[in-house]
Amino acid sequence: MLSLTSILEALFLVIALSIDAFVASFAYGSDRIHIPYVSVFIISGICSLVLGISLFIGVMVKPWVPASLITGICFLLLFALGAFKIFDSSVKRLIRKYHKVRRQVSFSIFQLHFLLQVYADPQSADYDHSRILNPSEATLLAISLSIDGLAAGFSAGLTNLNPWLVLLLSFGCGAVMVISGSKLGKLMADKSRFDLSWMGGCILLVLAFFKLM
């Protein structure tokens, strides 16, 4: 039976991982770029899939990891991810600066470069400038947004969190964040750029220290 504590822990985890999707969708909305529902489900689905894969890897590895190390591993993973997200805006500024300075990139690393560009500036995923985020563009955006889920999912898999609950909450929360972010961005439409990555980082840090209790 699911406890209230485990449900809340799973909910806080997926909220922390979904904040970037909200910010990206807000940017699209403020720039009048429409996100169709099929793209919403693609973004939420891919992010949940990546989270699920890493989560089940954690579940499979758990029996081979000494119980005395699980707490420490979970703490370090969540703490490192949380700390990174707090300084996320600085990382994105560096990537955007690099992109402006050097626009010519060899073909062999183009995909990596473009993913970094999308990570730093989500609006660049609309590469055909159609003002609609089509499925292929949504896939590219989802991949850049799902990177955080690798470490967080593995960490969650080492704990007693229900994997299916985490996946269900991840898909639902991700879809809600994308839709609400897009609609709120359209309402404000002031082109303002803001970054809430630090908020997701703070939540992950709280979860990390919660593991030590």
UniProtKB/TrEMBL annotation:
Entry keyword set: Cell membrane, Membrane, Transmembrane, Transmembrane helix
Residues of the signal peptide: none
UniProt-listed InterPro entries: Mntp/YtaF, Spore_YtaF
A Pfam entry, by short name: Mntp
Transmembrane segments: 6-28, 40-61, 67-87, 164-182, 194-212
Domain of life, per lineage: Bacteria
Name of the protein described by the UniProt record: Sporulation membrane protein YtaF
Organism ancestry: Bacteria, Bacillati, Bacillota, Erysipelotrichia, Erysipelotrichales
